[in-house]
């Protein structure tokens, strides 16, 4: 069996320049397949041999009948649209197809697979930087707009095509020999705008001339600039036609008759995978207009995308409760550390979802006022400078059915990614794998710039796992984790001003969020089991918010803790900004020391609260986890069932 997939895919060269590579080279391939014994040939061609496909089925091609497998293009039409002296690629593939048809008639077993543009992969997100469509995407992100009309290009990932091709090649009783491996579903302007908006990216469809003017103004710094002659040549079809919303008129039934269990991935998943790869590969420039870093604009975008206009009531300052910290954070991230596009995207996306969640909370409170009457009594709060130690202890204590831990999916999407999740007092034992928010959680884990392989190797996560409640606190937009992830020194200074007054405000939002999660699940009241290293320096705020809270202080050797903390921060910031490792270590050490002093001072001044505290040594915890947990329960006078303690 022989697979022939190579070609010089050049839309700018004439036929004479491509003939040797794309057409005459088939002589050697056929000779290989016919020497000694016949070998079945599987050859990839292109749908681009059809002028209608090249023309994006615009203008006179908009109402044409479907292109069927095996049908050859009209040569007169090809000459009209593809002058061989100017556009040679379609001719080189057409000539190859004609040669292979004759070879098959003479007895050579073969299959031909016509493909669309294949510039990206679903599994890895790999995107070919030199491709026209990639240049268009990068330039569109750079300008914060894309030309309407070009959106109809099919999102058919190369790895899905490869899987289909290989699977078909091994079929013993194949029904067909000619296939179109293309997802005929179009990606519309509104879908691109919505998918981008869901990630906090401002990406709007505009008329072609407006986009072209922006490209010309930027000149050679625009990746699409070198393709402007091509775009102008096809402008009438690509951009001046009525936008297509119906599937492309291309038959792909042959492949599904032979492979009925295959299906195309969603366009959204393909778009997101390609976008994330392009971010990580630094295709996008830091000065791109698609990422808004202005507080009022970010709030307005969140309100627009959520379809809501009211942020939570009862917080000091009204909307300023949210816009003030966003302004401080974005100013610091932009001016102090100069985030990369990837960093700006990560920050914008995070703030966007946090604001949408806040809007969803307020909407639900208006419908269900009893949410804010939920009592959060005597939560168990694991504090300690070491994230791993806190997470391990929380995971252990979560095995006690009387404890309730916040889960990754509900913390990041309390009412779903788009606010559509409407819990009806779910039972406490409702299985998490059936929670509709799990799908959004999986997408976040797969695509978040700050939850990459480096970070996940330190602290693995899944949608139903217990989650550090720092993610809850982030909804106040007043969290040290923003300093960890984005540097933002002046924002950190703003948090520390006035004896941490801004942090104190954040705990009101923290409690409010827990009330929503508690309301969502009915049944016997459970104790909340929370964990965060950021609580270490704010024991007074925890106990002011939750007077009956019981604090479990996890201790670990300072050297090990500092090293682990720096590794965590470094993994979060990788790719988001230039990192000065020495400065990073100095800042983290200072913050951890300040937190430790604040915690020690609080406990020294409040000895009457010692019954609400229990201390755990990390080494003892790792050596004998169950014994350490029993000690905590005994110290805090908590009942431990025989089943849990076994």
TrEMBL record:
This is Thioester reductase (TE) domain-containing protein. PANTHER family: OMEGA-HYDROXY-BETA-DIHYDROMENAQUINONE-9 SULFOTRANSFERASE STF3 (PTHR36451:SF1), PAPS-DEPENDENT SULFOTRANSFERASE STF3 (PTHR36451). It comes from Vitrella brassicaformis. Pfam families: NAD_binding_4, Sulfotransfer_3. It comes from the Eukaryota. Residues 2-163 form the Thioester reductase (TE) domain.
